[in-house]
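Subject: design request, 174 residues
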């Protein structure tokens, strides 16, 4: 087996940051409601829940897609779709576009979510695999807690649009 770089291990672990971070944007709801006065609270909250819904749909069918297209194409397509969804979210001129973008982001995450652990099993063995599986759980926690912290900091210095940059910058690291 060819020796894998530390950057490869970090990239595989970084995939685990995003699935847990989609709820971090809940703090944008007051800003959305302020910018769009006629917006109902339920619709504003959809911007947080719709990524989880589309993520769940893609998780259900991702095993079929992996068999058809392969692991590498699924991870690359999923991360690209996630980045596009995050960029559109940042620039969304209205709530309908924002909801579409957030659904796209969730679909992208759903494409690679199930592969977060299986990639470690596929690429590593022995003590390295065991260590990375432990780190994978830590990265999930960092995605949830770190995402909320980063979004809060962004909201304290910028508007709700920029809070959606979190997902975009997470993709750039990979």
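Subject: RE: design request

Done. Sequence follows.
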């Amino acid at each position: 087996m060819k020796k894998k770089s530390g950057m490869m291990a970090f990239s595989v672990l970084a995939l685990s940051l995003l699935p847990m971070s989609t709820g971090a944007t809940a703090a944008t709801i007051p800003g959305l409601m302020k910018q769009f006065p006629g917006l109902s609270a339920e619709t504003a909250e959809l911007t947080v829940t719709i990524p989880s819904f589309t993520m769940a749909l893609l998780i259900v069918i991702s095993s079929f897609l992996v068999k058809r297209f392969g692991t590498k194409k699924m991870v690359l397509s999923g991360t690209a779709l996630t980045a596009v969804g995050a960029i559109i979210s940042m620039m969304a001129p209205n709530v309908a576009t924002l909801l579409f973008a957030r659904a796209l982001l969730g679909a992208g995450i759903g494409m690679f979510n199930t592969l977060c652990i299986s990639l470690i099993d596929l690429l590593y063995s022995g003590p390295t695999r065991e260590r990375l599986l432990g780190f994978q759980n830590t990265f999930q926690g960092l995605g949830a807690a770190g995402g909320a912290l980063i979004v809060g900091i962004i909201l304290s210095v910028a508007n709700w649009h920029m809070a959606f940059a979190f997902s975009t910058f997470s993709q750039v690291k990979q």
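Residues 6-173 form a domain with the Growth Hormone; Chain: A; fold (CATH 1.20.1250.20).
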